[in-house]
Write a structure and sequence with these properties.
This protein is an all-beta fold and about 180 residues long. The chain has no helices and 22 strands. The strands form 5 sheets. Strands 1-5-9-13-18 form a 5-stranded parallel β-sheet, with no helix packed on it. Strands 2-6-10-14-19 form a 5-stranded parallel β-sheet, with no helix packed on it. The chain is globular and about 45 Å long. The two termini are about 30 Å apart.
Length: about 180
């Protein structure tokens, strides 16, 4: 339909430093129905600051279905923390946050598997290096303000390889995170 965000193929997003609000492996769209066909790969390395969220799938901020026909892969090799009280997220699947309040009938789907891997085995401690990982980690989908149906056709996977001196103060969820 007109205005729909469609993409076919695989995406590979890598960050080696810098500051950004969102990192999105799939489509990022308002209003239209983002459809993505392929696999996503997102890698976040030390020196990168993410103010809001890392999303393996696609995202939308209004009440539309979000479909990803493939699998998502998120790899985080650095400690991600938040400067304010609203915690950001590392999400393996799709992300829906309605800016207009509660909506119903939303469908978030990934036909393959969703994967989040946090591997801090090579993280360099000392100096200004952060020691608290504050972002919430969600293997499946993230939904705020929605009567929503979410599905992952394969498996929803979260794997964490931390260090003794790192504190994970956010929540870790294998499936879907829903708020209303």
């Amino acid at each position: 339909d007109a205005g729909a965000a469609s993409f076919k193929g695989d995406t590979h997003v890598q960050t080696h430093g810098g500051t950004m609000d969102y990192i999105v492996g799939g489509n990022m769209r308002d209003y239209a129905k983002p459809t993505f066909e392929g696999n996503t790969y997102v890698s976040v390395y030390q020196g990168t600051t993410v103010n809001k969220s890392v999303i393996g799938g696609s995202t939308i901020f209004y009440g539309q279905p979000v479909v990803l026909n493939g699998s998502t892969h998120v790899f985080v090799y650095t400690v991600l923390n938040d400067a304010d009280d609203k915690k950001g997220f590392v999400v393996g699947g799709n992300f829906h946050e309605s800016v207009t309040g509660a909506v119903s009938g939303i469908t978030l789907s990934v036909t393959g598997s969703t994967n989040v891997t946090v591997d801090l085995s090579e993280y360099k401690m000392g100096g200004d290096a952060a020691t608290e990982f504050t972002k919430n980690i969600v293997g499946g989908h993230y939904v705020v303000y929605g009567g929503c149906t979410s599905s992952v056709g394969g498996k929803s996977n979260v794997s964490i390889n931390g260090l003794q001196d790192i504190t994970f103060s956010g929540d870790i969820v294998g499936g879907t995170w829903m708020e209303s």
